[in-house]
Protein: CDP-archaeol synthase
Organism: Methanosphaera stadtmanae
Amino acid sequence: MDILTLIFYSIYLMIPAYLANGSALVFGGGTPMDFGHYCWDNRRLIGNGVTWRGTVCGGLFGMVIGGILGLLATYGIGSYFFNITASQITFMSGFVPQGLLVGFLLGFGALIGDAIGSFLKRRLNFERGKPVPLLDQLDFVVVSLLFVSTVVSLSLEMIVIIILVSIFLHLGANMFAYMINLKDVWY
């Protein structure tokens, strides 16, 4: 696979993770995932920023996006890229079920990664909303890649591309969310 195709495939594969991560901000609110509990260091386990509603709705949104990508592939839209993923999932057939599975893994992986990132930030004594470069951009990426790697092979080149692209996409998305008043900070 040439480098340009690999870049496009990497972005295509991550669409459910990217959209799930962003949608948690829209769907979020309600009960914090840590239920307000504190850790051994007398700081919140995760904090108010990661909620059950945002995590569940965002994860399901990622799954739906994966299903939509699978459905579009049945009509030839993005089918080249979807076939690369689908050909590796041998225990189930059909683009839509395969898309739902990949979307589920990427979507929930992204949001669990975000929760892990929040946990780490609290342990490192960073307050909610304070920037922690690279952790802020990559927590959701790393865990979503771990989850999806259970069904899809990821080359080292692909992982590097996803990490690099994700850093810039994440910063751009945060700036946009800040401009439309969905976030209090631009980073």
